[in-house]
Design a protein that fits this description.
- The protein has one domain.
- 13% of the residues lie in helices and 40% in strands.
- It contains two helices and nine strands.
Length: 141
């Protein structure tokens, strides 16, 4: 039996991320507060994400303007959003970076997190760069 998911459905999911998750956090671990907020099932962060933060950058997201997000066809299947490279992010705490968190800058809800190449951030005088990366939503299979 054939399966189908409209591109507009995949794009709607990606737009939730680009419209809300504009705070990129370089973190020293994964958030452990997995209690649902009931608001789109985002993770409630409380002090959890803040205590993990080693560096932070605010991403730009605006219709019709240059942004840090690009929604396009995935090279594998479906659609993807690519988050542009973030350079010279000021390190605000020391530790071993292992995760990237996308969260709201208003409500502090986490919308997405993933692992990154581990890196020791040993001084708050340092800067860190997060290379471009993508979140994929695949076609129905």
């Amino acid at each position: 039996m054939a399966k189908f998911c409209a591109t507009t459905v995949l794009d709607a999911a990606l737009h939730v991320i680009t419209a809300n998750a504009i705070k990129l956090v370089v973190a020293k671990g994964a958030p452990t507060d997995s209690s649902s907020t009931g608001v789109g099932e985002c993770l409630s962060t409380g002090a959890d994400a803040t205590s993990l933060q080693l560096a932070m950058s605010v991403l730009t997201s605006a219709t019709g303007a240059a942004t840090d997000f690009e929604i396009e066809n995935s090279s594998v299947s479906g659609r993807k959003v690519t988050i542009s490279e973030q350079t010279t992010i000021a390190v605000t705490a020391t530790g071993v970076a292992s995760h990237i968190i996308l969260m709201s800058s208003v409500t502090n809800l986490i919308y997405y997190y993933t692992t990154c190449t581990t890196q020791v951030l040993g001084s708050t005088a340092n800067k860190v760069t997060v290379p471009a990366w993508s979140i994929h939503f695949y076609d129905a299979t």
